[in-house]
Specification:
Structural class: alpha/beta
Number of domains: 2
Number of strands: 20
Largest sheet: 6 strands, parallel
CATH class of the largest domain: Alpha Beta
Strand content: 15-25%
Low-confidence stretches: none
Radius of gyration: 24 Å
Number of helices: 14
Oligomer: single chain
CATH topology of the largest domain: Rossmann fold
CATH architecture of the largest domain: 3-Layer(aba) Sandwich
CATH superfamily of the largest domain: P-loop containing nucleotide triphosphate hydrolases
Helix content: 25-40%
Amino acid sequence: MQLLEVEEEPVKQAMAQMIEAKDLELDREAIYLPPFYYAECGTANRLLALVEAVEADKKKPTFNLAAISQETGIEYDDIQIAAIRQAVESKVMILTGGPGTGKTTTTQGIIAALKTAGMNILLAAPTGRAAKRMSEATGMEAKTIHRLLEYNPKDGYKRNEENPLEADALIVDECSMIDILLMNHLMKAIPSGMRLVMVGDIDQLPSVRAGNVLRDIIDSTKIPVVRLTRIFRQAQSSRIVMSAHAINNGRFPDTSNGKDTDFFFIKEEDPEQVAESIVHLVKERLPKAYSLSPSKIQVLTPMQRGVVGASNLNLALQEALNPTSVCLNRGGYSYRKGDRVMQIRNNYDKGVFNGDLGYIEEVDMAERTLIASFDGISVEFEASELDELSLAYATTIHKSQGSEYPIVVMPV
């Protein structure tokens, strides 16, 4: 009524008709579009069935802390030991905690514990960037959830109830990014004999699409949860980590700056001035202070639009950092040789996916094609396909989730 600025009666009538026609689903107080209702019910039912499924004894792992520490070379604290024990003893569990609390090292311990029991383990994450980071941290292959489920746009998800995943355990990282439709497809492909470990930080942004899956599962209290709260000593020396925890606890972070900190705060009210400062920081000050190329510096911003939005900052940074005339123009943007770019759509034919970062290696102005390199893989784009690429000197915080950068500059 508020949105449409109309009386109550026509809204009630329309909703009653839609519920009767099954265009909407009503469940107690909640009103759903059908796909999300069935995805949520399906996810909840399958999670409960997985929790209650009796495990075959042949793969029942035992908990041996000495063997796990020897395998990983890490000494674990009490909460981390409790998390590893929980993963060994539960069919489903959640590991959560903020930055610097040891989610990655605890995940390594869980992998070592399950491996010691002779289990086959699959690793997955929602995005290509997050999967790559998981691979680097664990030394094992991690796939995107889409790749794990063998998704293609024509046939959908090949892994499902009829053709489930084959392994003893599945560990999924960055679970705060998973939306309800994807979670439902993932749960369909998990057989009752498999165990599931979900890792994520509930203080990160919820998924871009519908659902707040990780937080809702934790709030349900039906699944065992281990929260890592202790900030490790090496992380305590990082003002970035301490600022994140201060903000989550409702405190203003320490902005005293100074030479030895990794977290700086510059106060500036005028957006035009902020944009100029960002360009100066990325081009001059930071590369000089840290002896790093500007290509190692990522600008992250909350918005696409506005003077300090990603679109405007990209144009300003491109002009400052890469003023070459070797380029292709399309849709008001110029794509220049040497530009940092991001793939903004899944392209299964080219093997590049939403959020992948790359560089323009070559531009053929006569043929109107360019070649972009994504993690060493060269991909050709015709001019008509360039709306799949955006400049990535600056990108939104949503797009960057699951990534890490040596230096970040962020207007807030």
